[in-house]
Amino acid sequence: MLMAIDIGNTNINLGLWDGQAWLLSWRARTVADKMPDEYGVLVRNFLSSADMSYDAVTDVILSSVVPPLTTTFRELTERYFKLKPLIVTHKTPIGIEIAIDQPEQAGADRIVNAAAVVGLHGGGPAIVVDFGTATNFDVISVQNQYIGGALAPGVMVAHDALVNRAARLHKVDIQPPPDAIGRNTIHALQSGIFWGYIGLVEGIITRIKTALDAPHARVIATGGLARLFNEHTSAIDQIEPELTLDGLRYIHALNKKPSMVGEVGHSGS
Fold first, then answer.
1. Both 192 and 150 in a single domain?
2. Which of the residues in the chain have pLDDT under 70?
3. Within 10 Å of residue 220's Cβ, how many Cβ atoms?
4. Which one from 6, 59, 109, 138 is the annotated catalytic residue?
5. Which one, of 250, 225, 226, lies nearest residue 238 by Cα?
6. What is d(CA 22, CA 41) in angstroms, rounded to the nearest whole number?
7. DSSP 8-state class, residue 174
């Protein structure tokens, strides 16, 4: 079985692909200074909860936007799984062209999502909206090239920044208030954050479609808050909760080679 690992700034998403479906998936909090053995115990516990062991995993693919944890999970994979992981970088064959000015600066999660759209979800023109630590907008052209996008602060980052810098504000649930006109501080904050982000999403999507000259480009959303925002806007066409994991298993299929430590295999840097 394939273990796919996506390391983000806030969460680490791990999935176990049995060749037909995602058998299991887990999320863990990103802690950049954890040691390989600490994460090794966590992964072992995840597997044990499904009556599995390290031996059940035959291949590992990894994308990461946290460089220290790229090294950590490479060491973990080699030590506990006895496998050499495929680590996705801008140099990894992903089935599409990365047609941006500086491909080496593209976040691994962004190019993995683009690969998933082209390889598994119908191709371009398309826009991926990934609701994570940042709110990423990634664009796939009609020629199925990854051509860039837009980055905005994630909704929780904006919420926390405002609360931390304003003495009389405190954390609220991210949800629409009863009315756009907040009649108390909680509802006013919810209105500004929630409807503000709806406006941000709709506005950026509109401008990207105009720049792409593709008014009917599909909009695919993923990430933790995708479903909530989708309920309150018509700008999103479909939700793909496992888009990044899907991209990883697609890229793995494109690059599948022997991955035992000591054999010839792919690894990133």
1. yes
2. 257-269
3. 24
4. 109
5. 226
6. 22
7. S
pLDDT of amino acid 195: 96
Residue 10: alpha-carbon gap to chain centroid: 10
Any domain includes 19: yes
Q: How many CB atoms lie within 10 A of CB 175?
A: 10
Q: Give yes or no: 33 in active site.
A: no
Domain count, the chain: 2
Same domain, 216 and 143: yes
The phi and psi torsions of 262 (rounded to 5 degrees) equal: 95, -15
Digit-coded pLDDT (tens) for 54-103 = 999 999 999 999 999 999 999 999 999 999 999 999 999 999 999 999 99
- The reply to whether 267 falls in a domain is no
17 neighbors 61 (Cβ within 8 angstroms): no
User: Is the Cβ–Cβ distance between 223 and 131 less than 8 Å?
Assistant: yes
Starting at the edge strand that comes first in sequence, how are the strands of the sheet with 22-29 ordered? 22-29, 11-17, 2-7, 59-64, 86-87
Q: What is the pLDDT of residue 257?
A: 63
Q: DSSP H helical segments within the chain, as ranges?
A: 36-49, 67-76, 108-120, 155-165, 185-190, 196-212, 226-230, 243-255
Verify that 83 and 144 share a domain, yes or no.
no
For residue 260, what pLDDT is reported?
A: 39
The answer to whether the CB of 251 falls within 8 A of the CB of 6 is: no
Among residues 244, 30, 215, the alpha carbon closest in space to that of 131 is found at: 244
